[in-house]
Each structure stands twice: as structure tokens, then as C-alpha cells.
Write a structure and sequence with these properties.
It is a single chain. The protein is of the alpha+beta class. A six-stranded antiparallel sheet has the order 26-25-24-30-31-33, with no helix packed on it. Strands 17-16-19-20-28 form a five-stranded antiparallel sheet, with no helix packed on it. It has five domains: 77 residues, no CATH class; 88 residues, Immunoglobulin-like (Sandwich), CATH 2.60.40; 80 residues, Carboxypeptidase-like, regulatory domain (Immunoglobulin-like, Sandwich); 91 residues, Carboxypeptidase-like, regulatory domain (Immunoglobulin-like), CATH 2.60.40.1120; 106 residues, Sandwich (Immunoglobulin-like), CATH 2.60.40. It is 18% helix and 46% strand. It is built from five helices and 33 strands.
């Protein structure tokens, strides 16, 4: 019994120790369980975030707690283990999808801006006639925007790079400018030259004053051309290479200059002096077919200026003045030596038309004989008796067209005047369309003066109506012709 009692304290001590150890074991086990749960929570949360950021990959099996713990310890903090790269890729995908959207929808959502394209030549002069195209560069198959020549402002999307193409005169190389943006507001495209430029003025040799209304003609290896103007100054784009420049003006001698110009070269401040030509006095008489003087005939006189090369020529007629014949049918005018032009008309006679002849000496004589002519008053008459104004009249003698009136003017195909004297006549052209007007009066007649005497077929066109009738001029008088007209069929 005593021996049993002796073991009781030891038993109590062992019991106390066992209880304490069990308590510590339970507490340790609890702490380990909580740590494991925390680790699993972190791993599962990270897996969820990873799966949301990478929807294209299938979820992988959950790692063990120890593996997840080791991975976290090796990779560092959680934010370093899960970088925001998937967010950037999603933005790229959204941008690509937007670029592949319908062009109309894309254009509707884009902010627009106005871009002015200035096209200048190598000398900074604005080129108005350029053809300009704009094409966006971010779309491979974008259609170019083309404006008519002369328009230079484009409505383009902001922030989008564009390419500008320019095509213009053959004297300039096509040009490209890229990239350009609407935000710039204005962009300048400068062209490269294939030609040369020559500028200057035509002056009087005696005073150095600028000559107005001078004519120029040029001939080069790769082309020819000409120019004229009221200021006397010239500014020409010409083919590069050897150039022959010819200048002339009324009552002035012709001047010829030779130059050699390179592409893009500008020969400026060129002065071409023209000396006065000597004047010639022309004494003339105007007679009828019987040799009697025609009193009061109107004589218009002028000159012809020519700028000629071996391959081309530029001709200009200038009226110098007008005079009338006296009691003996005579007149006297002063014209520059060279080519003179006379035009004579009188009531009751056919007009002479332009008579050109050469005058070289100090005094020339010319005698002009006019043929007698009458007057025709012509209109159209419909079947109901109403009058209609002619829009075109043709007067024929057999197969020959003698006169044609249209557009308010008269064209004469036959000139019956005769010219004699010391002046050498070399041409008698058709009646000028600009000197003889033909207007319809209140009774819808169109009157033609100076019609040669004889019998004619008169054809009248009045809108959709057409007809013809015979007319006879036996003497110097006025003949009225009413031409029956009917609506034409099939344009005949």
C-alpha cells in the first residue's frame, strides 16, 4: 500500500506533464492548420486571378501547399508574380478590331480637320492648276481623295498620317509628300522643274520704255510656243536646251535672241529692244466698175506683225486708223514699212474685205475697184403667216456659197474688189466676222448689205423650222425676201 502511495506523486506529475504536452501538441497542430489554410487561400486566389487574366488557356490543377509556398517564396511579392501584360494585349486586340471595322463607321467616329495643300514651283510661285491627291497611310487599300484642279483644301481625319501626290504641268516633275497630318493646317509641296524660265520685257530701242502688246515666239529642241500681253513684260517656261526667241510689235522691227538654258535655270531681267521701222505713205483711190470715183467710202488701214522662226510663226493684226475718200475717191494714209492691210466699204457696193500688200519704199500707190451690190432683207414665214426671225441664212449662187449670216455676223466667201498700183498685193482674205454686224429688226427681218447683183438661192433656218426661196438683185436696190419655212423632220 505504501509502495502504491509512493507512486501517486509521480503519477500526478506525469499526468500534469501529459496534459501540458497534449495542450501544446493541440496548439501546435492548430497553428499548422491555420498556416496551411492561409497558404492554400493565397494560392487559390492567385490561380483565380491568373485564370481571369488569361482566358485563352485552360486552368491547370491546383498545386500542393508546399509547392505553392515555395513558388511564392522564389518569385517574390504577389504583384511581381502577376504582371499586367494581359491588359496591354487586350488593348492591342481592341485597336486591331477597330482598324478592321467598316470604313464608313470608322470615318463617322473620326474627328476631322482641314488641311490646305500649297503647290509651288521651284521659284516659290503658287501653281494653281495642280492635280492633288490625298491617301491615308494607316489603311493599305484606302481610296485616294481627288479634288478638281484648283481646289487645295482636304477634310482629313485628325491624327492619321496621309500621303500627298501632286501632278501638274509637263514642265514639272510629279511630287510626293508623306507623312502629313490634318493638324498641320497647311502643307507646302515644292515641284522640281524639267524646264527653264526666262523673263524680261520688250522695250523701245530709242527710249528704253516698255512696249505694250508685243508678241513673242520661241523655238527649242523639245517644243515651241509664244506669248503676248498688254504690259510688254514676259515670263515664260520654256524647254531646257537651245532656245531661239523672236519678238515683234506694231511699227517695230523684229528682234531675235539665242540662249542656252538648263533645267531649273532662271534667266531674268532680259530686255529685248525693238527699233522703229520707217513709215510709208500709201496714196489710194476707190473706183466703181465704170471707173467713176466712190465718194465717202470708209477706208480702214492697219498693219500685220509677225514673229517667225523656221518652224512656227505668230501673227497679229493691228488697226492703225480710219479715213474716208474725198471728191475724187482718193485717200492717203501712213503705215509702217512691211505688211499693210486695207479694208474698204461703201453704201451700194460690195465691201472689199481685208487687202494685204507689201510696202517697202517711201511712197506707194494703190487703186481699188469695188463691185456694185444691193441689199437683202430676209425673214422666215410659217404656214399660218406668222413671221419668224432667222437664226442662220445661207445665200448661194449655184453651188457656191456667197454669203452666210449667223450669230449676229456676216461671213463673205467671195471678194470681187480689184487692186492695182505699185503696191504688191499678196492676199485678199475672207470678210472678217468681227467687222460687219447683222441684227434682226422689229419685223424679224435680217438685213445684209453689199450683196453682189445677181440671182440667188436663199436658205433660212429658224430654230426647228427651215425653208428656201429664190431671190434676184437686178440693180442697186433693196430686195425683201419672205422665205416659207416648215418644221424640219429628222434634222433635214
Amino acid at each position: 500500500m505504501k509502495s502504491l502511495l509512493r507512486w501517486i506523486p509521480w503519477f500526478r506529475t506525469a499526468r500534469d506533464w501529459g496534459a501540458t504536452g497534449m495542450t501544446a501538441a493541440v496548439a501546435g497542430r492548430a497553428r499548422r492548420t491555420l498556416a496551411t489554410a492561409a497558404i492554400l487561400a493565397v494560392v487559390l486566389g492567385g490561380a483565380v486571378l491568373f485564370l481571369r487574366g488569361r482566358p485563352e488557356k485552360a486552368p491547370s490543377p491546383s498545386p500542393s501547399a508546399a509547392d505553392a509556398r515555395d513558388a511564392i517564396l522564389e518569385s517574390g511579392p504577389a504583384e511581381a508574380a502577376f504582371p499586367p501584360a494581359p491588359v496591354v494585349r487586350e488593348a492591342i486586340f481592341e485597336t486591331a478590331a477597330a482598324s478592321e471595322s467598316d470604313p464608313e463607321e470608322r470615318e463617322a467616329t473620326e474627328a476631322m480637320g482641314a488641311l490646305e495643300v500649297r503647290v509651288v514651283d521651284p521659284w516659290d510661285r503658287l501653281v494653281e492648276s495642280a492635280e492633288i491627291r490625298a491617301r491615308r497611310l494607316d489603311v493599305s487599300d484606302a481610296e485616294p481623295i481627288l479634288h478638281p484642279r484648283g481646289e487645295r483644301t482636304f477634310d482629313l481625319p485628325l491624327g492619321v498620317p496621309h500621303r500627298i501626290d501632286v501632278l501638274t504641268h509637263l514642265c514639272f516633275e510629279p511630287a510626293v509628300r508623306e507623312p502629313v497630318y490634318a493638324e498641320w493646317g497647311t502643307v507646302t509641296v515644292q515641284l522640281a522643274s524639267r524646264c527653264a524660265r526666262i523673263s524680261g520685257r520688250v522695250v523701245e530701242a530709242e527710249t528704253g520704255e516698255t512696249l505694250s502688246y508685243a508678241q513673242l515666239a520661241y523655238k527649242a529642241e523639245r517644243g515651241s510656243g509664244g506669248a503676248s500681253g498688254g504690259s510688254g513684260a514676259f515670263d515664260l517656261l520654256v524647254p531646257a536646251g537651245d532656245l531661239r526667241l523672236v519678238a515683234g510689235a506694231a511699227e517695230r522691227e523684229t528682234a531675235i535672241g539665242k540662249f542656252r538654258l538648263g533645267s531649273g535655270e532662271w534667266l531674268r531681267d532680259v530686255e529685248i529692244p525693238l527699233a522703229k521701222v520707217p513709215r510709208v505713205v500709201v496714196e489710194g483711190r476707190v473706183l466703181d466698175a465704170g471707173g467713176s470715183p466712190v465718194i465717202g467710202a470708209k477706208v480702214t488701214f492697219g498693219t500685220v506683225t509677225e514673229a517667225r522662226t523656221e518652224f512656227s510663226s505668230a501673227e497679229s493684226r493691228e488697226v492703225l486708223g480710219k479715213t474716208r475718200t474725198g471728191d475724187s475717191g482718193s485717200f492717203e494714209v501712213s503705215v509702217p514699212a512691211g505688211t499693210a492691210v486695207l479694208h474698204v466699204e461703201a453704201a451700194g457696193f460690195e465691201p472689199s474685205g481685208p487687202i494685204s500688200f507689201e510696202v517697202r519704199g517711201s511712197r506707194e500707190e494703190v487703186e481699188i475697184t469695188l463691185a456694185r451690190g444691193g441689199r437683202l432683207r430676209i425673214r422666215g414665214i410659217r404656214a399660218d403667216g406668222s413671221a419668224v426671225a432667222p437664226t442662220e441664212i445661207t445665200v448661194r449662187r449655184e453651188a457656191e456659197v456667197m454669203l452666210r449670216a449667223r450669230g449676229g455676223y456676216v461671213e463673205r466667201a467671195v471678194l470681187r474688189a480689184k487692186v492695182s498700183g505699185s503696191a504688191r498685193v499678196y492676199s485678199m482674205g475672207r470678210e472678217s466676222l468681227g467687222t460687219e454686224r447683222a441684227a434682226v429688226d422689229r419685223e424679224k427681218y435680217l438685213t445684209i448689205e453689199g450683196v453682189p447683183l445677181g440671182e440667188y438661192l436663199v436658205v433660212v433656218t429658224a430654230g426647228a423650222f427651215k425653208g428656201e426661196a429664190m431671190a434676184f438683185l437686178p440693180a442697186v436696190e433693196t430686195v425683201v425676201v419672205d422665205v416659207p419655212v416648215a418644221e424640219s423632220r429628222d434634222g433635214k
